[in-house]
Amino acid sequence: MKDYVVKRSSAGLGLFANRDFKKDEVIIEYVGETISDAEAQRRGGKYLFELNDEWTIDGKSRDNTARYINHSCKPNCYAELTEDETQVFIKAKRAIKAGEEFTYHYGSYYFKNEITPAGCKCAKCLQKD
Ligand SMILES: [Zn+2]
After folding, report:
1. So what's the pLDDT on residue 124?
2. Which residues, in sequence order, are CB contacts of 123 under 8 Å at separation 6+?
3. From the CA of 126, how far away is ligand 1's center (Å)?
4. Which residues surround ligand 1, an ion (CB under 5 A)?
């Protein structure tokens, strides 16, 4: 059995825990092609993960299961760069139970440009209505 499963969520497809995870446990690596900042600007797209001012991961490939993890304003995961800034791992912000959806905060730039125009669909924001 895999550690996670892709299923429907409030924001389209999402990634869900298939077992319990401990706080700070690695859930999955955000994988993709590492491209220059200029190339990232040219390509655009919603699966770009900025490593630093020079390099970005383009995670649009279907091999990148981490791309199914949705944004949340009250997430249970966080993204952590390795010290050499070449890889990104999604880790548990707190203990996560099997069946919970994984979420992390996409960052203020992405939020402002990609989420605010249509309204945030995360569980925390939907509760406010
Ligand atoms: Zn939200």
Report:
1. 87
2. 10, 72, 74
3. 7
4. 73, 120, 122, 125
